[in-house]
UniProtKB/TrEMBL annotation:
SUPFAM superfamilies: Composite domain of metallo-dependent hydrolases (SSF51338), Metallo-dependent hydrolases (SSF51556). It comes from Brevibacillus brevis (Bacillus brevis). This is Amidohydrolase-related domain-containing protein. PANTHER family: AMINOHYDROLASE SSNA-RELATED, CHLOROHYDROLASE FAMILY PROTEIN. Coiled coil: none annotated. Signal peptide: none annotated. GO terms for molecular function: hydrolase activity, acting on carbon-nitrogen (but not peptide) bonds. Residues 55-402 form the Amidohydrolase-related domain. The lineage of its organism: Bacteria, Bacillati, Bacillota, Bacilli, Bacillales.
Length: 437
């Protein structure tokens, strides 16, 4: 049995009962948090880490990331959403080889870990064959990060049963306890979406769908609800440009919502709907989306969420003269979105999302000793406004160190595979005028 003691740290537990502990200890046995408090007893077989000068908090839960697209690292930053649909989903994505999916997933997981992500919903919308899916599972197994892999392919118009069957086959193949296979459903055909939701629910498969990123989907959630569809085990991503009734239902029915603020503003999905949900008492979660457009850092997304939501609130209060309706929405609130609220959105709150005895040992350690980030007054403000991947020196997922002393512990991806996939991608991208390669 492995036993790890982190001693004397500033603990931000994200647990409403434990709260914050200055100079606190965290005891981990195998992959489980056993104690969170003070003055834990030392034994000879413990791995002891000096936590003084560190903030320790749960690892980030990214509820919407196209991990494999890290192979395109910022190549699409200046593309609109229409460009993405036509150039990538309608073209390049259909020609990706299984090797490319493996390479992109491998380096994408490493980049997520580097910035403190310990759980990620991988929206794998280029799983064009069973072989492509196997390469995602290979990367998952080699890296060991906690994942939900949503199986979907790049083609919008195809045999509606093919992707579902592919997902089920991969679900049967998967033997990794840290990977859950889910369904990536499409919203462009409402009748098909209904069938997908019903089928996924009957088989107890978690499902996720992009909604509201294009005009014309306002009222979709209300329609699905009126049809009596089981919406409690499906994650809705983006959710821009929906109706007030849709937003009310998200809160009323405790639905899973993931907002990816930076990319939604860059690519034209619509304004991130934080205010619409928060003002009704809801708690959305947050994702990066794709690092083919934005950076991989979750804290950036959280910071954007706080700034954007306050800007909307301030406009309503100061310019339109409306009464404040957000209550206290601050750095702590948005860090909760990136941890415990993310765990709730993935229906994993009993396992992860807070530093609570009995939960899995998913955590990060943030070095507060650098002069460029001193001094420390409010720890939540400090994390949100000062921290970047370089300050996150230790990352643990399921009781295993994924990053330690500032270095990701995994081997880099095979350089020959990386070079070959990069060459292939450059050739694909060069066919589009204006794409710099």
């Amino acid at each position: 049995m492995s036993t790890i003691l982190i001693q004397g740290a500033y603990i931000l537990s994200m647990d409403s009962q434990i709260k914050e502990i200055k100079n606190g200890d965290i005891l981990i046995e195998n992959n489980i948090i056993k104690q969170v408090g003070k003055n834990s007893e030392l034994t000879e077989d413990m791995e002891v880490l000096d936590g003084s000068g560190y903030i320790v908090m749960p690892g980030f839960v990214d509820t919407h990331r196209h991990v494999y697209q890290h192979l395109f690292n910022q190549a699409f930053t200046n593309w609109s959403l229409t460009d993405y649909f036509t150039r990538f989903l309608g073209d390049i994505g259909q020609r990706l080889r299984p090797q490319d999916i493996y390479v992109g997933s491998y380096i994408g997981y490493l980049e997520a870990i580097h910035s403190g992500v310990t759980t990620v919903l991988h929206w794998a919308n280029s799983t064009n064959s069973y072989g492509h899916g196997l390469e995602i599972l290979r990367a998952d197994s080699e890296i060991g990060i906690r994942t939900i892999v949503a199986i979907a392919d790049s083609v919008v118009a195809h045999d509606e049963d093919a992707n579902f069957k592919n997902m089920l086959r991969l679900r049967e193949t998967n033997s990794n306890p840290l990977t859950q296979i889910a369904l990536g459903a499409l919203s462009n055909d409402v009748e098909r979406l209904k069938r997908s939701i019903k089928e996924a629910h009957e088989l107890n498969v978690f499902a996720t769908v992009h909604v509201g990123g294009v005009p014309g989907e306002a009222g979709l959630i209300a329609h699905l609800h009126e049809e009596g569809l089981p919406l409690d085990f499906i994650n809705f991503a983006h959710c821009n440009q929906l109706s007030e009734k849709d937003y009310e239902l998200f809160v009323q029915e405790n639905m899973s919502v993931s907002i990816t603020p930076e990319i939604e503003m860059l690519m034209g999905h619509g304004y991130p709907p934080f205010y619409q949900i928060l003002s009704k008492g809801g708690r959305p979660s947050i994702g990066v989306d794709t690092t083919s457009v934005v950076g991989a850092d979750m804290i950036t997304q959280l910071r954007v969420a706080l700034a954007y939501t306050h800007s909307v609130h301030n406009e309503r209060v100061n310019i339109k003269g409306e009464e404040p309706s957000l209550g206290v929405f601050n750095a702590k609130s948005v860090l909760e979105m990136g941890t415990i609220d993310g765990a709730r959105a993935l229906r994993m709150e009993e396992e992860i999302g807070s530093l609570t005895p009995g939960k899995k040992a998913d955590l990060i350690m943030i070095d507060t000793g650098g002069h460029q980030t001193a001094p420390l007054y409010d720890p939540y403000n400090y994390v949100l406004m000062n921290v970047n991947a370089g300050n996150i020196t230790h990352v643990m997922s399921d009781g295993r160190w994924m990053k330690k002393d500032g270095r990701v512990v995994h081997d880099p991806v095979d350089i020959d595979l990386l070079n070959d996939s990069t060459r292939f991608m450059r050739e694909e991208l060069e066919r589009y005028q204006g794409v710099r390669v």
